[in-house]
Amino acid sequence: NVSGGGKEVKEVRVPIWSDKNGQDDLTWYHADKQSDGSYKVHVDTASHKGDAGTYSVHLYYMLNGKRTYITETKATVPQATESQVTGKLTNNGSYYSVRGKYDDIIIVNKKHGLSKDYNPGENPTAKAAFVRLRDDMINQGLNVGRSYSGFRSYDYQKTLYDNYVSRDGQAAADRYSARPGFSEHQTGLVFDLTDKSGNLLEDARASQWLKDNAHNYGFIVRFQAGKEASTGYMPEAWHIRYVGKEAKDIHDSGLSLEEYFGIEGGDYATSSKPAESKPATTGAINLPATGTYTFTGRASIKAEAKVSSPELAYYDKGMSVNYDKVLTADGHQWLSYMTASGARRYVDIAAAKAESKPASQPEVKPVAKPADQPSLPESGTYTFTGRASIKAEAKVSSPELAYYDKGMSVNYDKVLTADGRQWLSYLTASGVRRYVDIATVKATETKPEVKPVAKPVDKPSLPESGTYTFTGRASIKAEAKVSSPELAYYDKGMSVNYDKVLTADGRQWLSYMTTSGARRYVDIAAAKAEAKPETKPVAKPADKPSLPESGRYTFTGRASIKAEAKVSSPELAYYDKGMSVNYDKVLTADGRQWLSYMTASGARRYVDIAAAKAEAKPETKSVAKPADKPSLPESGRYTFTGRASIKAEAKVSSPELAYYDKGMSVNYDKVLTADGHTWLSYMTVSGARRYVDIA
């Protein structure tokens, strides 16, 4: 017991060393306070070279900022002998441990947590072994960086986990992130490696080297493919756990830590399981549990097996995927696979048998609907005369979840008019209400609109920083551009703390920094001076074809609808052969001829109809960089004279992650020449190295 003489004892420190070689293995331990007021410290002989014999133990406590000596003692450790692995867990109030062949092994998984107050810091023996391993990998030319993620306190893990839950939902976050008190990082025995770009290590050659050699340094690759049922986590090639001498035995067994010691693992005791827990047995397509699937039409890729989950990307007809799971969820049949970065993805391939609508692939590109409002009974069966969108809400702006094609039928229980359209409505087998857009109520615009976000017409007057409450849905983006993909959104009534207000691309934006250090932009209104989002209006009409400045155009083939007159702008929807549009402008931009019109919601759209006669190739980077290498100090602050790309590698071919614009500045710590260009380099707040192409 430790008493501070009536004053609060802030910390108890215990220096311990083996008498074998003086104090060459001296380690300062934090003692953990027990429920009875006493303090205990757990000593792993692996931290002292595995030495047997006599150990010196001193006791200090921190009081009023000073370290005060109390007493000392000796302890004897018998010569280690190999013992049988018992698998019997004990708990000392701070953590669970199991007796291994050579020493006690701390166990942390979703069934066995840590005390909130357990705060040992980085284990010095594990850290020294990690540095040797990392440096050996670097010296062998493997794609490994010097940055890493090691010890995390309970509070830090809570912040990290809460952010993941906020972003992806708890079911998804639990697959790759530990809840606070259940993270191995809190033991100080775990390290996450990165590659040379600062990203978590996924390089195939380096990952294989770790699997084959980590045990030689006392580590195991903790979460491996095929072990998710026992570990509770998806594979992580970068995550290694120090266990000391027994690492070789665990490696040679081919088992996970849980399997090796025969202890319980898997999911949390009370878990919110993700949707994929139910395997598909009655899906519309009869498929083996694993294999390769070739798509017969467009199919959405999602982060969750939910119809309402946002589309991340898609597979088109004729494309293939290697999948490792088939499941039924939310009334649909899904294929599932792991990405190279360890993220699980789900592809919606069919309506399940119990679903009241026929099997179809989801499609995010709405085409024209019937022009007249049919006269229909309040309930019944409807046969479609053309393609019709299925939505979660009776709103034109609601994302398309799937569609009915010509000749398909649906049993409906409601007919309604909303948002200027006529809708059929029905309940899915899972009890979710769906709406199908079948006609315009009156002869108005029939042009498709994917995401018409109703924003204020006038630019709000806002302070430079503060809290903003949204009056409607607003897109969150990585760039202040209309064409930038939507990462997430704020809904009506939600709020955000912002630190910047700016006008760009004809819109007003709020901007803020995420907890991971990434800047985000939220589109809140059209700028007062600009009624359309067009960024490169070129007045010169193209010669091919010859069109009046406004009128009605009938398409001779498929033509993309876009938010900007740019070839690189994402396709929002399309017109097919024989369809028509009323346009109010003809322009040439990016080497193409475009028709332009305003949607019913006031958004300007552009349709690519032909290659312009005078331009052979589009040019997307209008800001010319200096031809000569600027004379710059090795580190400092640089102000940009034009747009400059930020990349993960100093390569022209590396994808652009973000950019600096004219007048913006950056603090850099390195100048280098690579790939025929001059680059500035800096570290992000998350420890990732970035490169900026300046000349």
Question: Care to describe what's here?
Answer:
By secondary structure, the chain is mainly beta. It has 7 helices and 48 strands. The strands form 14 sheets. A 5-stranded antiparallel beta sheet has the order 16-15-20-19-18, with no helix packed on it. It has a 5-stranded antiparallel beta sheet with strand order 23-22-27-26-25, with no helix packed on it. A 5-stranded antiparallel beta sheet has the order 30-29-34-33-32, with no helix packed on it. Helix 2 (154-168) packs across helix 3 (170-176). The longest helix has 16 residues, at 124-139. The radius of gyration is 31 Å and the shape is globular. Residues 80-86, 270-283, 353-372, 442-458, 529-543 and 614-627 have low confidence and may be disordered. InterPro entries: DD-CPase-like, GBS_Bsp-like, SH3-like_bac-type, VanY-like_core_dom, VanY/YodJ_core_dom, Zn_M74/Hedgehog-like. Residues 355-379, 532-553 are annotated as: Disordered. It comes from Streptococcus salivarius. Residues 288-355, 379-444, 465-530, 548-615, 633-695 form the SH3b domain.
